[in-house]
Write a structure and sequence with these properties.
Chain A: Keywords: Cell membrane, Membrane, Transmembrane, Transmembrane helix, Transport. The complex is a heterodimer of chains A (315) and B (290). Chain A has 315 residues and is mainly α. Chain A has helices spanning 2-18, 25-60, 77-82, 86-117, 124-132, 139-149, 156-162, 179-204, 208-216, 221-232, 234-250, 253-258, 270-280, 284-314. The chains are: A mainly alpha (315), B mainly alpha (290).
């Protein structure tokens, strides 16, 4: 805290120091305000492009905008139409299925792999990058690869059948009921290695003495993890949850490349719903209303988290 | 935390451990493996099945087709033009957003003003908004500015929405930087920019690498902005790849699709292979933990 106070006092020190100099008043003013002038363009940009645009979108959701924006305020009409669109409920239902499985599987798999890698194994330098590299890929690339891999006519199903297991079927990607789970598989494939890396960093930060003490007390490896290690990873669980939830709600590219939202509307998500209503179905007001709902969901996850994070750093 | 299992011989448990790790390694490698072998097969060979088999008569035709002759939209000139579009978009966007982020981080840590914490929180929340909630106004403004559907427009978009992250990276890094050094320099009469150039920047190497990699990966891999704001010939790589794979008519050339997907992935994969450590650090820092 004291450090901060000194830092805040620094500009005054500078100003005082410079006063005797033969500077023009304009130069002095510039010197004193330079830091703020440097920050200002970024602040204006974020103020306009983030917060201004959000307000603009919220306003559009209270109009009758179709292909082009119109600015006559008509109240909650678009919101009411949004919430009476079956497709929107399908998108929310899919988000619930996809989001919960995506988060839970990534957390479980990430933790599991991190614990395995943390067993002083040989070849850690080999396994870790293999688990993590999909994170470097675009979701479009991931979707393209998995679309091919899951293609019933050429991909996994055909290959296993050719091996002699002729009754093997794996046609989720073309099934209305199961297609959403292929999005989960591809999503988990892409991101779980990253969750592993987060947990691994957490595991490496745990105090060894406590674990040795537990071992001396005769605790089994399983109990050591359950009682001592995993509870200490709580902050990582929180960070990983927030990152995953945020990615799930924003998921757009992966669905577009993997299933295109289909078959039918089987893999519609809020993000694809928003895009198609705004840009291809020319229902801008409804698209804006759906974007407002997406923003509200994300804000509900992110704001408490940021609050906790920033408060922690302050103390 | 590694004390739990000491280095023992090859017990049964160890064998199971390696077997599980090996299985997962296969799970993560398989799609990439399938992409690579498919891209070197001819269409006839692909129709025979056996996705996992090595190409019998390896051919790079699909790669040449993807790069030079595949049809995207109405033109059949391959991905090469779109690859350059992405380069022309990524380089300035990464450069500008990194410079601004470092300056912002410098001001937010070393030239604090009342309310700096609020300013930072507002910038940070900007990182996490769903871009769907700014898409329409952005399209309208880009149209007004006359840069709708151009690479310049995409650069602007990526700079603006990358600022929060770059500022976050530099702020957390500069926070640990000793204030005494800054004060000493001030007493010696060093100006705001002199301190930044002579003291902050020379010691910012690692965080610059982290930021550049993070921004490069994010912007190269972006699809939503590219699909919304860049049309036709100015589309970036990801949009072109998606158009190639999902809107082409006629014979589905899976070998070309796979070659195209690998080409689209290559720059970020290379960055990852060359500097994996920094890549991971950027991802972690992006999860707010500084």
């Amino acid at each position: 805290m004291s450090v901060e106070q000194t830092v805040e006092a620094v500009p005054q020190v500078l100003a005082a120091r410079n006063q005797p100099r033969p500077d023009s008043p304009a130069g002095l003013w510039l010197q004193r305000h330079l830091p703020n002038l440097v920050l200002t363009p970024s602040l204006l940009a974020i103020g306009l492009f983030v917060y201004g645009f959000i307000l603009w979108t919220i306003y559009l959701s209270f109009t009758r905008s179709k292909i082009l924006p119109v600015y006559a305020f008509v109240g909650t009409e678009a919101h009411q139409r949004l919430w009476s669109t079956p497709n929107w409920y399908k998108a929310l239902e899919n988000l619930a299925i996809f989001g919960s499985l995506y988060i839970i599987i990534c957390l479980a798999l990430g933790l599991f792999l991190a614990i395995l890698i943390d067993q002083k194994i040989r070849g850690e330098g080999l396994f870790r990058p293999i688990f993590l590299y999909p994170m470097a890929l675009s979701f479009i690339v991931t979707g393209t690869a998995w679309k091919w891999f899951l293609n019933p006519g050429y991909g996994l199903q055909k290959t296993v059948q050719d091996w002699g297991w002729t009754s093997f079927t794996f046609d989720w990607i073309s099934s209305t009921d199961m297609a959403i789970y292929t999005v989960v598989i591809a999503g988990v494939w892409q991101v779980s290695g990253f969750v592993m890396a987060m947990f691994l960093a957490g595991l490496r930060g745990i105090d060894n003495d406590m674990l040795r003490a537990a071992q001396i007390d005769g605790a089994s490896a399983f109990n050591t993890y359950r009682r001592i290690v995993i509870p200490q990873l709580r902050p990582i669980f929180l960070s990983a949850f927030v990152v995953l939830a945020h990615m799930a709600i924003k998921s757009y590219d992966l669905v577009v490349a993997l299933t295109g939202g289909g078959p039918g509307n089987a893999t519609e998500l809020p993000a694809t719903f928003m895009y198609s209503y705004t840009f291809t179905r020319n229902q801008m007001a409804i698209g804006a209303a759906s974007a407002v709902v997406m923003l509200a969901i994300i804000a509900a996850v992110i704001i408490p988290y940021l609050y906790l994070e920033l408060k922690e750093k302050k103390s | 935390m590694s004390a739990a299992a000491g280095a023992r011989g090859l017990s049964l448990g160890r064998i199971v451990l390696y077997a599980i790790l090996g299985l997962f390694a296969i799970f993560y490698m398989l799609p990439l493996f399938v992409m690579i072998v498919t891209s070197f097969k001819s269409l006839d060979e692909i129709r025979l099945g056996d996705m996992l088999g090595l190409p019998q008569q390896p051919t790079a035709d699909a790669w040449f087709a993807a790069w030079q002759t595949s049809c995207i939209g109405l033109t059949c000139e391959g991905l090469k033009g779109y690859f350059w579009n992405s380069i022309k978009m990524v380089v300035p966007a990464v450069f500008i957003s990194t410079i601004l982020g470092s300056l912002n981080g410098y001001v937010l840590t070393k030239w604090r003003f009342p309310g700096h914490r609020w300013v930072f929180a507002l910038m940070l929340f900007g990182c996490f908004i769903p871009f769907q909630s700014v898409l329409v106004p952005m399209a309208l403004i880009l149209g007004k500015l006359g840069i709708a559907g151009t690479t310049a427009g995409l650069v602007l978009v990526h700079v603006v929405y990358g600022l929060g992250f770059t500022t976050l990276f530099f702020r957390n890094y500069y926070e640990a930087f000793p204030n005494e050094l800054i004060r000493a320099a001030q007493i010696d009469g060093a100006s705001f920019f002199q301190i930044f150039r002579r003291i902050m920047l020379p010691s910012s190497g690692p965080i610059i690498v982290v930021t550049v990699i993070f921004q490069f990966t994010n912007i190269w891999n972006d699809f939503l902005f590219g699909a919304s704001f860049a049309s036709g010939d100015s589309a970036p790589m990801t949009v072109a790849l998606n158009n190639l794979v999902n809107t082409s008519t006629g014979v589905r050339e899976y070998n070309v699709y796979m070659a195209a997907a690998i080409i689209a992935a290559l720059p970020t994969l290379l960055v990852y292979i060359i500097s994996g450590r920094y890549f991971v650090r950027g991802l972690m820092a992006g999860a707010v933990k500084g």
